[in-house]
Amino acid sequence: MLNQYIQELEQDPFDGEEFVERLAWRVNASVSPPGSTESVFNPDLLHEAFTQAIKDLQVLDERTAKKCERVEAEVREEEVRHWHNVAQLLDNNKEAFQSFQDLDSHINSVATKVVHLGDQLESVNTPRSRAVEAQRLMNHFREFLLPGPLVSEVFTDKTKIYEAADVIQKLHLIAQELPSGKFENAKQKIAEKYDEIERSLIMEFVKAHRAGDKDRMKEIATTLSHFKGYSQCVDAFIEEAQHGALRSRDLYMEVVPLCHRSEVLIREVFTNPEQVMGKFVLNIFQGQLQEYIQVRLDNKSVPEVYLKNLHELYCQTLKLCTDLQRFNLGNDSQFLSKLTKSIFQRHLHSYISVETRYLREKFNMILNRYYESKGHQKKNIQSGGINDIRRNIQDVIGTKANINIGPAVENYGGETFLSEEVAISLLQETKQAFKRCQMLGTNLEQKLDHGLDRTLSAIVSYVRHVLTVEQKRTDFKPENDDMLITNVTVACQKVVRYVSGIAERIRDSLDGHNLESVLLELGLRLHRTILDHLMKFEYSATGAMAVICDVNEYRKCVASFKVPQVNSLFDTLHTLCKLLQVSPENLKMVCSGDQLSGLDRNVLASFIPLRSDYKTAKLGNQLK
Questions:
Q1: Tens-place pLDDT, residues 236-289
Q2: Which end of the chain has the lower number of beta carbons within 10 A, N or C?
Q3: CB 463 within 8 Å of CB 528
Q4: Coil/strand/helix, residue 170
Q5: Of 153, 173, 175, the residue nearest 164 (C-alpha)
Q6: Domain Exocyst complex component Sec10 N-terminal, which positions (predicted)?
Q7: Helix boundaries (H) for 212-251
Q8: Which of 128, 147, 164 is the last residue of a domain?
Q9: How wide is the angle at C-alpha 467 spanned by C-alphas 462 and 472, nearest 5°?
Q10: Residue 339 to residue 320: CA distance in whole angstroms
Q11: Is the entire prediction scored with pTM above 0.85?
């Protein structure tokens, strides 16, 4: 029965009522006659069964409790063993860490000794190496002092050209320091050998380029980088790389692929790939591209063809410059723009006159062709106020009274000589001309913007100069703190007078949004300059009154700009200056006022320390 009880108790979920019901059912079923459908109720038997079941469950409970105690004891023993192992591992880890520190200290000690030994060896070896090198150069120099040809294997064996290049380059530097006279022949022989080896290296570089030997090209280029003729090596590479290229009718299509192929090789061969790539592109622009453009623009006899070619070539060149920007051509960001300008400068200089002359001729041709188709000969009619009034009166009187006064006015049979086709042709020509002008004409807006920016920078620089020279520290921290402030400082007077005059000139020169933008930028820069200037001083109570008067005068000056953003900035600056005068007890209240509540706390924290009583009144605590 115990096994049966265990199975029933281990059911999930376990229901106690069902367990009792099943127990009662089994007891009743055991006393019912076989084959009977009615159960016989025997209370004594049921009581006995329940009593026995309770005893069995108690026995089962005792067994389970003992089993739990045994398992808990095993777990505690396992936990003890586990903590013992953890403690042992911690001890081992500490020992390993200590060993690691000892080893690290030992390694550092050994490394220090090795470095010291290396320094000693280097201090001994460097002079020795220099002495050996000097002896080697002296032996070679002695050979140049002797008459006759060179017999050293270094200069006669062509396989040792790199060693010869290293020697002759150093001898050439030494020869430049030697006096003339007895060393003149040796200096001449060294110079001749220097040029000979340089030419040989360049020839070897060209051969390696044609053979596709990148490693040898790199080795030669590195060697030649110490020679005066390194630029000739670069020129030889450019000439060889462009040989046979850029020969098709559409030259622009070949430039970018050629530059891409060459850039890969340039980066592998040369130590200064940006400069070489820039010279490569420069050679293309000033060489074949310029020749190609000049050939197509050489004939100006047909203005229409000339203008069309000029516009097309200029657009293609700008697109080419955009495509070439992916390559690193050096530090000059205007490099490609300058190249384009140098090629087209002569044509762009006369473009406007050519364009206007062509438009006049084209318009006259279209109108004359139209008049010829109508059989009409255009006459020059006098125009002006009196002539127009006379013709109008003549037309009215002649129509109403049928009286002909003055010369007869021809109406050409009612022909108005207005043609939609002619108008479309004129508009089309004008459209094409505007399109060309937009691309080829000088970008005046950009130049004006640049000029205005430089003008504003000059204005602000002068204001900064006046403030620096004229403003004295005693203006804001006078020796007599009881003196009465009745006027603005000299520096403020000069700045306001200067800025007012400048603002008047700006209003005379600009209008609309341009005027608003320039005055806004001027106001912003003035505010920044004045704020930076005021942050350099320390202010007493009297000095605070002086700076408030100055800022109020600045505020009146910029109010004439009629720019709300600038007015707001100077209003805030005026309120900031009041922090220099307000009593320490009211400082916190003023800082949290409406005009300063939205201001960055860092600005307040940097402005309040300008007070002379900042430390004595412990005003730093007011901002915490």
A1: 888 888 887 777 777 888 888 888 988 889 888 888 888 888 999 999 888 888
A2: C
A3: no
A4: helix
A5: 153
A6: 43-157
A7: 214-224, 230-242
A8: 128
A9: 155
A10: 12
A11: no
